[in-house]
Each structure stands twice: as structure tokens, then as C-alpha cells.
Amino acid sequence: MEDWLYIGLFVFISIALPAVAIFLAGLLSPKKPNPIKNTSYECGIETVGPSWVQFKAQYYVYALVFLVFDVETIFLYPWAVAYNQLTLFGVLEAVLFILILLSGLLYAWKKGALEWM
Amino acid sequence: MNLENLVAILPLAALIVWAVLVLLVDLWIPKSRKFITALITAAGLALSLGLTLAQNGQSRSAFGGMVAVDGFAVLLNVIFLASGLAAVALAYDYLKRMGIERGEYYALLLFSISGMMLMAYASDLIIVFLALELLSIPLYVLAGFARPRSESEESSLKYFLLGAFASGFVLYGVAMIFGATARTDLAGIVAAMGSGTGNPLLFIIGAGLLLVGFGFKVAAVPFHMWTPDVYQGAPTPVTGFMSVAVKAAGFTALLRVFTALFRGDVYADLWPLLWGMAALTMIAGNVLAISQKNIKRLLAYSSIAHAGYLLMAFVPYGTRLQGDAVASTLFYLIAYGLTSFGAWAVVVALEKNEGMGLEIEDFAGAGRRYPWLGLAMIVFMLSFTGIPLTLGFWGKLYLFRTAVEGGYIGLALVGLLTSIVSAYYYLRVLVVMYMKPGEPVAQGGPWVNILAVATAAAVVLLALFPGPILDLVSKAIMLQ
Amino acid sequence: MTALQIIFLFVAAVTLASAVMVVSARRMMHAALWLVLSLAGVAVIFALLDAGFFTVVQVLVYIGAIAILIIFAIMLTRKAMEDVGPQLNRGWWLAALAAVGVFAGLAVVLVSWPGVNASAGAGPDANLIVTFGKDLVDPHKFVMPFEVASVMLLAALIGAIYVSVEHKGGQK
Known about the structure:
heterotrimer, B: mainly alpha, 20 helices, C: mainly alpha, Four Helix Bundle (Hemerythrin (Met), subunit A)
């Protein structure tokens, strides 16, 4: 439970810090708005069109591939924690697990699912 | 010890390795040579079939009780692998004709069959759930295999949404049973419930949720709504495969889990539900099939109706007739499977591009023009109805007998009456094929024709000599 | 009331409130972001129950991947981003009734359970994960589900790619 307390503390601080900064800035800064100041800041370039634009469907494939390998990580996490106490057979089991999914990566690669568009 | 475990599931392991191999090899096979993928796939299925047959007569458990290798698993695995071969034969020319010849069909098919085989081995609820997912996920994609055709995509989406829903029910049921007994292996659950440490309320809720989930998979009323749309939209070889193998896999799950877990008091609570489901499924499937004009929808409703007959054979599983219930379910599965694949082969042969040629009216004249296909269709329709001299007759006879001896005479009566109703729409197909003029074109290719004629021959020959199959199903005993 | 209970009540309230926002927010994108908060609340509840592994799963898979996937899906479909239609349809009371029914049923079942008042006597967390890791590759325990899970993930990956990648050469 102690460990969680530290993590909770970190979560609290990481939320509080920017919140306080933004709040203080809003409180202290002088307010003289004009239309140019109110436009969103994009590295000095004028923004064009709405900010909520439709993304290319290709991104979804990356997300899907990412999800699958994310779940793989979850399976390997307890295995990695127990790594020091495993037999050779146990290690090979996980290698097989990775190899099976590796063939999926190979498929994705060859199909062009990973190509940047 | 590790090797022993691996040997126990060798047919499954070989098939999975082969599936990965097919997936990778196909990447380097040019588009014009996809028949090579089909041949490799068929070889893998044959290899696994051989390994399965070598397991005949074994009865042991492996992987710490996760899987059971027994006569039941062997027989069902033979059914699944044979279904796979049939699905390859159906697709061989079809995919090229429809312009969707892609290697993924075969890889996904093999993955789906792996899931089914795992289901046959399963003796742990975790494995049951994983097997259910492994067999379903590739099928969601296969249903939409003809993308970007919108009917196919619609079929895929509907199947996926409802299938995911059903998987959720199964998982929730597993969670409830785990909550009740703190075990997931079937033997452990039976022991926990027997010793009185389990929570009976959670247990019965779990049983109900599992019934809903498996009911979806076998398309039993009231969980059948997806069937006609999915069957109609999916590419026809996939539909044929679904109508046989998925149903068989669903009944595998029901037989494995229910006969082991839900007996005694729980059975006393469950059987009225099962009874109602079986009766409703038979009535709704047969009645709704009457007004269908599209052959794929007709066969979809017919498959619902047959799920009802299979459920009828399954209902007496908790009485002293358990052996008969299992055997008659398996017998009917074999009879239904052979007949159904044959009928789908005829549909594949007569289908035209863009989903045309699938109205029953389009079959007009086919009987005269293609005497072999016509003759085969006569056999299939009679076998579906349950007319003597076909395997369907013995199947129905056996399951009616099981139901009557189990004391479910009302259910048998419903089955008998709905069978008579079914004769109307099955025979109408034959009337159109023989009595109406028309010029259909059969272009299924050699393998589809061989499949149609071979299954028709099997349906007739095995009906004349039903001994071997009766022998097989009565030996398909589960390890418990 | 202990500090732990106060934290639990606070987190549970946040989780439930953001869950309500998920279904009532007018913009899909906002609903998705509320969902992230709700999932994070569940992660904290897992942590409070000393279920470290599930906390990790919750954060890594649900917040890290599934929420991202949902947000992607919303950004990919123009319609979904602009949809500001009514939040209720005619059947809303049926859904509410079903939800209340399920809640009542679960509550009754759980209260009837003798273990409902027992405190969780979980052992040291780190060792639990080590045990789990060892069991995952133990041939007498979970190696079978472990390997099958990877095959299932592979099948899902192929399926996802087949469905979403446009096919080269004609067809499309």
C-alpha cells in the first residue's frame, strides 16, 4: 500500500503543478485582448480551417497494431518479473509467444500496413 | 513431461504452426498463383487429420487438466478438419470467380479451425473462452471477406457486434462460476459444488449466461436474429463453413461444459429453459423459412431449425440417457454437416457475380440441365427433411428416440410437426429446379461438383449402412 | 472512517460521475475523454484493492491503447465529431430500468455471499506477480492459455489489417 501512496502523491503533484501554474498565470496576467491575440498560436504561422479535422484512416491501422502489441506487453510483464526464477523451458515458452506475434508483424510489414502515408 | 503434453495436442499444434506458415508463405506467392496457397492449406488439414486419427482410442488429460484428449475430441476434430477441407474445396474456384482471391482466406480459415479443435479438447473454462474467441475472430473477418462489397461488410459488422456481445455473456458466465467456486477447471468446479463450498445462486446465474452465449453461437431462438443477414451477406463458402463448423463448435461447448457441470439440481432448473429454446428454435426456424425467396436466407433459417433439432437431442443430457443424448447430437451433427455442405456446394455452383443467381427462382431448370447437381440436391433436400433412405432420416429417428425415452414426448411431437412443415419449403426448391423452365449456368468448377456428388453419395450410402457412424458416435465418450 | 475509505469514496464518485458524463456529453470527443477519466478511476480502485497487476493492465491497455483507439476512431469519422443530436431516444427508460435491474440483482447476489464482509487478505504484491509470471509458463498451469492467447492476438492482428488496409490493384 505504501508504494501506491508514493504513486498517488506523484499523480497529485503532476496534476496540481500545471493547474496551479495556469491558474496563477490567469490571475496575475494583465488582460488586454484583441482579435489577433486571441487566435490560436501555431509557431507563428496563421492557422487555416477548424482544428478538428478528419484524420487519414491509415492511422487507425497503426493504432490497431499498437493495441495488439500492447496486450502482448501485458502478458510478458509478469513473465519478465519472474524471469530470474524461470527454467529454460519457461523462457522458451515466452520466446515462442513472441515468435508467433512476430509473424504477425512480418505480415503487417509485407502488406504495407506500416507504411507512412 | 513437457513433450508428453505437446504430443497430446499435436494435431492442434501442427495446425497452428501450419496456419502461421500459410500466412507467411502466401506473402510471397504471386496473385495469379493463389491456388498454391489452397493446396498447402489442404495439405495442412490432411496432416492434422492424420495426426487426429492417430489419437483414436486415447483417453487422458494434459496441461494440468486444461485439455482432455478423448474419443469425443477426436470425433469432433475430424468433423472440424473435414469441414475445413470442404471449405477449401468450395472456395477454390469461387474466390477467383468473384475476384476476391486472397491468401488470407486460407490462413484465417486455419486459425478458426484451430479454435474449434481447441474447443473440442477444452476441459477448463478459460480454454473454452479462448477457443470461442479464436474460432470467432477469424470468422468475423471471413464474413466480410468480399469487401468492399457492402453486403459482405454489413454481414461482417453484424456478426462481429452480436458475436462480441455473446462472448461477453460467456465471459461473464465464466466469471460468475469462478466467483461461485474459485475454480475454472471443470473437474475442480464439480468438486467444489459437490462439497458444498460453492455459491449455488452465482453458479446458476453463470449457467444461464453461458447458455445465452452458446445459444448465440449455435443460432438458437431467441438469439438467432443475426443468422439470415450474416449468412446472406458472407461469401457463400464462408456461409457453408459457418453453418456446419460453427454450429458444431457451439454444440461442442454446450456438450463439454453442460454435461460436466450442470447436472442434478441445476439441471432440474435448466431443462425447462432448454426445452423452451429447442421448441422455439424448431418452430421459428421452420416457419420463417417458408416465406424465403433467397436460397441463402432459406438455408440460414433451415440451419436455425436444425439447431433446434440438435438442441432437442441435447435436452435429455442430465437424465440417465446422457450417453444417448451426446451420441444422438453427434450423429445428427454428422448427418446435418454432410447434407449442409452438399447443399451449399450446389448453391456455390449456381451463384453468379455480385450476389446474383441466389433467388430460388434462379434455380429454375437446373435439375434438367445439370442432372448430377440436380440429383445431389434431391438427396440433400430429402435428407434435410428426414425422408427414409437418407442420413437425415436416421439422425432424426435417433434424436426423436432419445427425446421420447428421456421423457420429453412433447418436444419430440414439436419436432415431428415442424419436420412436416419443413418438407414444404425443401420440396419447393426441387419443384423449381425440375418443373420450371430456365437456363441457369453452373460454373462451380470441378472441386465443388466433386464435393456435391461425394456428399450426396455419402448421405445415401451411410443411410444404407449406418452402423459405422453409430459405432463411432457411441464411442465418442468424454473424459470426466 | 479511515483515510483509505475516504480516498475510495472520492475515487468511486469521480469514476461514476465521469461514467455518467460519457453517456451524456454532447460531443463524442468529450465523451471519449471522460471515458479516460472513468477508466483511470477504475485503475485507482484496483490499486486500492492491492491488485497491482490489474492496475497496470488498466492503465496500459485500457487507457493507453483502447481509449486511444476510440479517440482515433472519432477523429477518423467526420460525422461523429460533428454530431450534436439529442442524447436520449425513446427507449431510454428501458435501458435505465435494465441497468437498475442488473445493479439490484448483483447487489442481492453479492450481499447473500458469505464472503462479502471479509477483508481482502492479499499477500505481498510483488510476489503475487512473480507467482503469476511463473504460472504463466508452467506446463501444468497456464502455458496453454498463454500460447493460445498469442495465436488469438495474431489472428486478430491479421483480421484487423485485412479489414482496414486498402487492397492494392483494382478491387477498391
